Amino acid sequence: MLQLEGLGKNFGGLPALDKVSFTLPQGRVTALIGPNGAGKSTLINCLTGILTPDQGSINFQGQNIVAWPAHAIAKLGIQRTFQNLRLFPRLSVLDNVLTGLICASRQSIFMAMLRLPSLRHEERNLKLRALEALDLFGLTDKAQWPAAILAYGDKKRVELARAIVSKPALLLLDEPVAGLNAQETRAVSEELQNLRRMGHTILVVEHDMDLVMTVADQVVVLDSGSLIAAGTPEQVQHNPLVLEAYLGRMEATA
Predict the structure, then answer these.
(1) Average confidence (pLDDT) over 1-20
(2) What average pLDDT does the structure give for the chain?
(3) Which residues 6+ apart lie within 8 Å of 140 measured at CB?
(4) How far is CA 39 from CA 16, 164, 185, 236, in A?
């Protein structure tokens, strides 16, 4: 589904990504891990058009999407969540999820002014899709609540619901359990496993290794902008380069 070839991005002459290459198989969960500053969020931002790579290619379903604007990439079928919450606090939970369907709407200013029957029919269909997404994450009863008053864990779920409501071909999750307690993390883990069973293709950036080992089919590891390992969770877990990146070089002792 997605193939990265020699992806590079520099900031002030320093490489945030250095010739990164890997593939994402369809219908699988790939975890992107690495120490702080490894380039994980930079990679996500390049995939979604927020940043433009300085070199390399991003081939999504046969098209090189490097330098595409963010809205065009979203319309193509790539959706994401953010490391820091990006909700509209004064809007209802339902309206926040509906913003994820902007690319799916055929509405125009002219249609909105006339309130044509076709517009009202489309609005009902979009609301049904948003409610289905909320139901998937157990948030239907809070659909009319202002997003600002939700607990932090529920806000994370609203972001997940907004990301999947358009039924994207590829879902990018940037630290979906950051700041959650153990119970909330287990709930998100179960929800991600459910999305995998439904056939979603997911790239998840995460520091929680228990979640990575539970939900990921393959793991890609970055360190200082370079890819240092890729394989199954078990293979990566015992890779000496990965252990060194996380734990530091260990001196041999007699």
Answers:
(1) 93
(2) 89
(3) 131, 134
(4) 5, 25, 24, 18
- The answer to whether 58 and 21 have CB atoms below 8 angstroms apart is no
**C-alpha closest to that of 225 among 65, 66, 9:** 9
User: Any idea what DSSP says for residue 216?
Assistant: -
- The dihedral formed by the CA atoms of 181, 86, 143 and 191, expressed in degrees to the nearest 10: -50
pLDDT given for residue 254 in this prediction = 29
* Burial class (CB within 10 angstroms; exposed 0-12, middle 13-18, buried 19+) of 156: buried
What confidence tier does 102 reach under pLDDT thresholds 50, 70, 90?
Answer: confident
Q: Please report the domains of the chain, with CATH numbers, ordered by start residue.
A: 1-77+171-254 (3.40.50.300), 89-167 (no CATH)
**83-94 pLDDT tens trace:** 888 899 999 999
Q: In whole angstroms, what is the distance from residue 124 CA to residue 21 CA?
A: 43
First to last CA, the chain: 49
Quick one: which of 8, 1, 23 has its CA closest to 66? Answer: 8
What does the pLDDT read at residue 122? Answer: 75
Place of tokens 């790539």: 78
Indicate the helix (H) or strand (E) that contains 196: helix 182-197
Please state the φ and ψ torsions of residue 249, each to the nearest 5 degrees: -65, 130
